[in-house]
């Protein structure tokens, strides 16, 4: 708020005997309020007085910057907040999305098939192969931070598909959902690191939470409770996830607010692509 630091008055009137000046009009005050918006020396002339000079200095008070949900805990919490809003209420308590697709219902209501599950595993492997190849190549230096995190899934999926083959099942070729997503990730990783990191986060973290639950429920229904390697991690999963959270937060510290928002805006595309692959389980 601007405030008045000094006011100097100078009046020049003809000296006459018994002279009585005309009183000031009622429509204007002869003082300047504290929040009067002047920032430099100015002259103010009124009909009944000579020039009045004053000096006003102003200080700028910054308004608090808008805080984004989860921002105080780090950028990963911002990504988590946005992702949870894109779940349905059947999937998560924080979800806001209406159920529109079969895979958006509670897993307990699903009717999976072996053929559909194999399609899902094959397309998932293609996506993880692509992700891990991008991280290994590291077109941007920040990608190298996420090598050998312990969350990698390609080798685990290869073991699972080999097990199915040994059981006499034919392993299908990758289908359109997986191929499309893999190509998109390749293109994105070469020109848009913030958007790519959004997909990296959502793919790995979603699999460690909801993905693990899906694997358990599907195994109960069609695999006689067989636990696949896809849903196993070497070491303490919670610690592996925390290590990656710390790295993600560190990388995001160098981003502008616009870059962070751009990353968050990519979440919906990540959900759409992953949802198309997940839907294969029910095909």
Give the overall shape: globular
Secondary structure class reads: mainly alpha
The rounded Rg comes to 33 Å
Query: Span from first to last CA?
Result: 65 Å
In percent terms, what proportion of residues is strand?
A: 5-15%
**How many helical elements?**
8
- How would you name the oligomeric state of the polypeptide chains in this document? single chain
Q: Tell me, rounded to a whole number, the average pLDDT.
A: 83
Number of strands: 3
Descriptive notes:
- The structure is a single chain.
- The protein is mainly alpha-helical.
- It has 8 helices and 3 strands.
- The chain has helices at 75-85, 114-137, 154-166, 176-191, 193-222, 237-252, 257-265, 267-278, and strands at 3-8, 42-44, 52-57.
- Strands 1-3-2 form a 3-stranded antiparallel sheet, with no helix packed on it.
- It starts with a strand and ends in a 5-residue tail after the last helix.
- Mean pLDDT is 83; it is low at 1-21 and 24-60.
């Amino acid at each position: 708020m601007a405030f008045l630091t000094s006011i100097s008055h100078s009046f020049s009137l003809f000296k006459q005997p018994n002279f009585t000046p005309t009183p000031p009009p009622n429509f204007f005050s002869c003082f300047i309020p504290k929040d009067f918006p002047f920032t430099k020396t100015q002259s103010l002339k009124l009909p009944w007085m000579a020039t009045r000079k004053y000096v006003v200095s102003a200080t700028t008070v910054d308004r608090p910057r808008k805080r984004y949900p989860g921002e105080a805990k780090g950028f990963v919490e911002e990504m988590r907040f946005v992702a949870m809003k894109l779940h349905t209420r059947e999937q998560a308590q924080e979800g806001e999305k209406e159920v529109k697709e079969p895979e958006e219902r509670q897993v307990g209501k699903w009717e999976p098939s072996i053929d559909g599950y194999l399609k899902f595993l094959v397309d998932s492997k293609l996506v993880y192969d692509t992700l891990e190849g991008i991280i290994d190549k590291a077109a941007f230096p920040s990608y190298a931070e996420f090598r050998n995190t312990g969350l990698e899934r390609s080798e685990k999926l290869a073991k699972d598909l080999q097990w199915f083959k040994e059981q006499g099942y034919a392993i299908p070729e990758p289908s359109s959902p997986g191929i499309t997503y893999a190509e998109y990730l390749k293109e994105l990783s070469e020109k848009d690191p913030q958007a790519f990191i959004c997909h990296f986060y959502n793919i790995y973290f979603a699999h460690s939470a909801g993905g693990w639950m899906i694997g358990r429920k599907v195994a109960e229904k069609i695999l006689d409770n067989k636990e696949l390697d896809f849903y196993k991690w070497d070491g303490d999963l919670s610690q592996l996830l925390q290590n990656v959270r710390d790295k993600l937060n560190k990388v995001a510290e160098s981003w502008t607010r616009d870059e962070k928002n751009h990353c968050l805006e990519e979440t919906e595309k990540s959900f759409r692509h992953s949802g198309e692959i997940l839907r294969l389980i029910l095909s």
